[in-house]
Amino acid sequence: MQVPLEIHFEDIGPSEAIEARARKEAEKLEEFYDRITSARVVIGRPHRRHHKGNTYRVRIHMTLPGAPDIVVDHDPGDRYAHEDVYVAIRDAFRAARRQLQDEVRKRQGHVKVHESPLHGVIASMVPEEDHGFIASSDGREIYFHRNSVAKDGYDDLDVGQEVRFAEDRGDRGPQATFVQPIGKHHLV
Questions:
Q1: Does the structure show a pLDDT above 60 at 122?
Q2: How far apart are CA 138 and CA 136, in angstroms?
Q3: Among 150, 188, 166, residue whose Cα is nearest residue 118
Q4: How many structural domains is the chain composed of?
Q5: Which of 4, 29, 127, 152 is deepest in the core (most CB within 10 A)?
């Protein structure tokens, strides 16, 4: 870490053993991902229960370069396992590690990003040649062929009808690889 790990105690006195456990867990995160800029851990005991025991709460805030901060606020609620501070620390750092793994996957391109389908309007049809053109919402004209229309619906298309489409690069420019009419019940 570029900034030393900060450990704070809330509603409990400082403990070298608890602090050592939190540092050990933070080191494990650094072994997994060595570009953590800073981390702050707050360990507290906010609940004052007489019949169920007191549980611990662990909050972790990590900053990474060029990414959203990772924040874990592990409030156990009624989970009795978190009456043990070491279990609470372990669980909070596991949650932080999962978030860190997700961020690493995104950076490595292992997470698929699903783009929403493009929208447009049928601008023209050439039925004798089995193709037509879509006027996209950004003002471009996109070619489509009969075979790219969903459910063999080419003959049911009309000029001016709204459609969703997927686009790819064709031999002569942009081409819709999938075209689906949008009915009135699909409009938002």
A1: yes
A2: 5
A3: 166
A4: 2
A5: 29
